[in-house]
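In the present case, backbone shapes were mapped to integers, as reproduced here:
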Amino acid sequence: MKPVLEAIEKRRSLRSYTGEPLEKWQIDNIIKAFMYAPSAMNYRPCHLIVVQDKEMLKKLSQVTPYAKMIEKAGAAFVICCDLEKSRWWVEDCSAATENILIEVADMDLGACWVQVRSIAEEMEPERTVKELLGIPKNFRVLNIIAVGVPKKYKDKHSEKETDEERLHWERF
């Protein structure tokens, strides 16, 4: 099996961390994974904010009920996009997010995608993150990725999880 498939097999949402900080090489690898992500028309509109400050991690952990794990993460990575550069911001940020999640799995760290993007009229989590981190008005925030040394690992994906009913050849 190719190493990238091994990392994809290991990739799970892990929400419980030891609180240890990430090492510089780990953060550097995550940044590279983000930078190498594709984007529509190669506009490269996405931006990454690396957060390691414990006080800020605590504040980010309170922006939504689903963000509590951020407080004990070794770092958080906020993915946002310049709307003046691309209208495909959700797709572009999602590609960058998945690159990060796969790289994190490959390094045997844990991660969880925390949704921040507002999909309804209520925009409080996104507005709060923008205020906390000084993100410009013309930007949208897709998510925060909590990354840390996991307290425990989940089993990797297995062939038993494949669902042939979702696979179609040539036509639905």
Summary: The chain has one domain: 3-166.
